[in-house]
Amino acid sequence: MSRSGTRVDMPDELHEALRDVIGALAQGMAITVAPMHTTLTTSEAAQLLGVSRPALVKLLEDAAPERAVDHRIAQMSAYFPPIGEGL
User: Fold this and answer.
1) 47 and 40 in contact (C-beta within 8 Å)?
2) pLDDT at 27 over 90
3) Fewest CB within 10 A of the end CB: N or C in the chain?
């Protein structure tokens, strides 16, 4: 429902995602919303995850050596699950 009281229809997937976000926030978790095709440097990804860049690089190389990127950039969708899949 909008602020004016008007009913707003939304797809079931969006409703579920918003419910997951509200649940995560209620548990004190941080939420970041970004397009799945966002390109991040390892420094940016490490900051989002709250880990050091070297620790993230090691985790990425250990978990998926075939995805290791020479220029140390990655598509978010390659490493971060869509909301609802990782909660």
Assistant:
1) no
2) yes
3) N
Higher pLDDT, 18 or 65: 18
CA atoms within 13 A on the CB side of 37: 0
Amino acid at 81: P
Residue with tokens 């419910």: 19
Closest CA to 54 of 36, 79, 72: 72
Q: Is 80 helix (H, G, I), strand (E, B) or coil?
A: coil
Residue 48 has pLDDT above 60, yes or no: yes
Query: pLDDT tier at 13 (50, 70, 90 boundaries)?
Result: confident
CB 40 within 8 A of CB 72: no
d(CA 16, CA 13): 5
